[in-house]
């Protein structure tokens, strides 16, 4: 994987082969950040990266100037790799070992962007639980965005607060936002 833009643009990061991950492709990541670049100023964001895996998305935010990034993954090897990589590149990412659903249940941390990339093999109910918890716990800041990456065979458009979906190769990004305050 490589960092697409920002301070560490072009930097390649090689994760240990034993990690149980499926990193977001460079093509999909670039498309996602083009969307976000048109909506947000990265320096001001608070980001929560769920099912963080290798930290691919967290590194991209950090490279673009985001200073408050929390990465959550249940695998100790992933969390250790994120911490080591973040420290080596002086990114300041806070990585936590936790079941994502337990983390969301207990978290009081609010974010502008919450990115979730669960294992594609999880059942639909698990994917549906992510926005349910995020909005029940009011974890998105004003004008915030929840992005869930999932396989193109899955549809999350029936869920509350769904805004749109974007397809890139075999992946889809489903976007959710707080209801507009009219």
Automatic annotation (TrEMBL):
Keywords: Methyltransferase, Transferase
SUPFAM superfamilies assigned: S-adenosyl-L-methionine-dependent methyltransferases
InterPro entries given in the database record: DNA_methylase_N6_adenine_CS (IPR002052), RNA_MeTrfase_RsmD (IPR004398), SAM-dependent_MTases_sf (IPR029063)
GO biological process, one term: methylation
UniProt GO molecular function: methyltransferase activity
Listed name of the protein: RsmD family RNA methyltransferase
CDD domains documented for this protein: AdoMet_MTases
Organism field: Zobellia barbeyronii
Superkingdom of origin organism: Bacteria
